[in-house]
Amino acid sequence: MGNPWNVPVGGRWKAVERKLRVGEVALRCVICGLAVLVAALVGTDTQTRRIVYLERKAKFTDMKASVFLVIFNGIAACYSLIQGLRCIVNVTKGSVLLNKPFAWLIFLCDQVMAYVSVAAVAASAQSGLLAQFGQPELQWMKLCDLYRGFCIKAGCGLAIAFVVTSCILILSCISAFNLFRLYGNNKR
Amino acid sequence: MGNPWNVPVGGRWKAVERKLRVGEVALRCVICGLAVLVAALVGTDTQTRRIVYLERKAKFTDMKASVFLVIFNGIAACYSLIQGLRCIVNVTKGSVLLNKPFAWLIFLCDQVMAYVSVAAVAASAQSGLLAQFGQPELQWMKLCDLYRGFCIKAGCGLAIAFVVTSCILILSCISAFNLFRLYGNNKR
């Protein structure tokens, strides 16, 4: 039992299980709040610049990756809210997830959320780097010198999206644990 | 035992375990081969065009996302080769992974590979979409009309990278299963 890799069985098992479920609720609440913040920050990001007699406007919809990020964070907020409520009900009722089809459903949804989240952040980061540094070899000019305020707001949104993704990754490990330990076979 | 969600225990368990390990070896071999192909396809992608008296060249290094994709696929090929050899040794020796620290190590490595793989493909897909369609609002012009051959080769590389990523995602589920079932607690 002194082995740090072993989850304790018997009496202490219940305590670990409870901690895990409380952690899951906390993570889902954090994700819900931060995802709303990301969607609001990036989704309202716009800046108009007047260059001599020409008016030019940058909107978040100019970058398809930002639109993807906003939509994904909206979905992530709703999903986390529903899952968070489910977890709270479970914690207060003290019931344990032992239903395999349901654990599979949660596992698959959490996995999809994790991978789509990484994809959204990676695509947005790539767009952000192009906006910040441009790509002179391809004649794609940098935009952040012109639209400073726009880029700062988008950068903040992206930084928070990184935190949201990290939380979702931890959650996907917890739901993998919750699923696969049901297949444990201690009799071998 | 008729429940499709139950992994059979006892005698049939060993058969399932063996199938899983053979599947793991096959997936790691497929990843190794395809990752080398992606790195070779994208890493040698270049096209020179002469426009009137001006010579212009597109190289894969012009897109930072392609460089990321090539480097990641190189690493993925090496990693899969090493892991594949480990799996083959395990299958031929008939030993079962019951060592928790080692299962944790494999799980963490596979998770990192899965997420970095998704990030590389997403960033490359974003760059590819920009090259294909441009972003007129931002004065980023499309490139694929000019560099047709370059774009087709990069597109093939990206399509294969999608397959590699899918295989890595399945593997990460298998290694999560291999780890977390060690924490199963059938005594409850």
TrEMBL record, chains A, B:
InterPro entries: CASP/CASPL (IPR006459), CASP_dom (IPR006702)
Keywords recorded for this protein, A-Z: Cell membrane, Membrane, Transmembrane, Transmembrane helix
GO cellular component, one term: plasma membrane
Compartments reported by the entry: Cell membrane
Record keyword Translocase present: no
Domain of life, source organism: Eukaryota
Membrane topology qualifier: Multi-pass membrane protein
Regions that span the bilayer: 25-44, 65-82, 102-129, 150-180
Domain Casparian strip membrane protein as annotated: residue spans: 18-164
PANTHER family assigned: CASP-LIKE PROTEIN 2B1, CASP-LIKE PROTEIN 4A4
Stored NCBIfam families: A_tha_TIGR01569
Subunit (UniProt): Homodimer and heterodimers.
Assigned protein family: Belongs to the Casparian strip membrane proteins (CASP) family.
Protein name (database record): CASP-like protein
Gene that produces this protein: LOC103708628
